[in-house]
Amino acid sequence: MLLRQLGANGPTVSAIGLGCMGMSDVYGSADRAESIATIHTALDAGITLLDTGDFYGMGHNELLLHEALSGRRREDVFIAVKFGALRSPDGNFIGFDGRPEAVKTYLAYTLKRLGTDYIDLYQPARIDPKVPIEETVGAISEMVKAGYVRRVGLSEAGSDTIRRAHAIHPISWLQIEYSLFDRGIEVDILPTVRELGIAVTAYGVLSRGLLSGHWSKERSQQAQQDYRGHLPRFSGENLERNLSLVEALRQIAQEQNATVAQVAIAWVLSRGNDIIPLIGARRRDRLNEALGALDLHLSKEELAQIEAAIPADAVAGDRYNPEQMAMLDSEKR
């Protein structure tokens, strides 16, 4: 397993991380036994980074990880946890809470559900516009000093917020969407984190399945049954346009004797040693396919061919609906 460093002076983790959200939430029901087997397969393959959130399945994901990690050495796993999303009993997202007292309360419940004494990296899932980031990060910093948290991260934060947070406590990584379909961070955010020595954990590297190579118009009905049915990229002409881009990528993948997903992941890996893609695999076969990207070494010419097939502004539709886009500090201009 390739390793990558978190920030200028941070620890090393696997070059690919396992995002566990889909095992509990958003994409419909998942098989518990298969989810645990997938986590075990990831660990056995050398993946050390596991990414979760306390609101994934309203605590279900943390409990699942606790079960999957039973009998494993705690120090062999880097657990990253997002917090702050508020959800109603019907599963709807109803806001964010970044108050210092809320931060500490969320952490207390997370430690209990995961059955651990500390969290390797703790981060707000979104930036609460009602609470100065200095207060949110300051509370996490207190938990670092108390020994409950090792490192501080941010998610979907813009450059100004990143700088303000980093002035309060060193930020180890920014978690943000980054893929062939989402390259907006290259303009301002990526230069900022590189200036500050902050790593990037890239989620959505397969654009919620669009770049997996397994999607089709026939599967669009499935998208209507989970939250993708509310995303602009999965509807109407947008979907047709985006799938045509995937077919262009498929031709390149075939020349590499690789799958579309492997090429998409390998492209993200190629963007720098400070970028760590998160793979949201729920099944062992999808995980093993993703791991194959580590063996795919793309030349400058091949990377240029990929980017010509999918230009930075080619994708149709925003990554979230308008209400969710408005919640992203990273999208503020």
UniProtKB/TrEMBL annotation:
Q: Name one GO cellular component term.
A: cytoplasm
Quick one: signal sequence residues? Answer: none
Q: Does the keyword Oxidoreductase apply?
A: yes
> One MF term in GO for this entry?
oxidoreductase activity
Q: Which PROSITE patterns match?
A: PROKAR_LIPOPROTEIN
Keywords carried by this UniProt record? Oxidoreductase
Q: Which domain of life is it from?
A: Bacteria
Extract the Pfam families matched here: Aldo_ket_red
List residues of the NADP-dependent oxidoreductase domain: 15-309
Where along the sequence do coiled-coil regions lie?
Answer: none
| Entry protein name | Aldo/keto reductase
Origin organism is Aetokthonos hydrillicola Thurmond2011
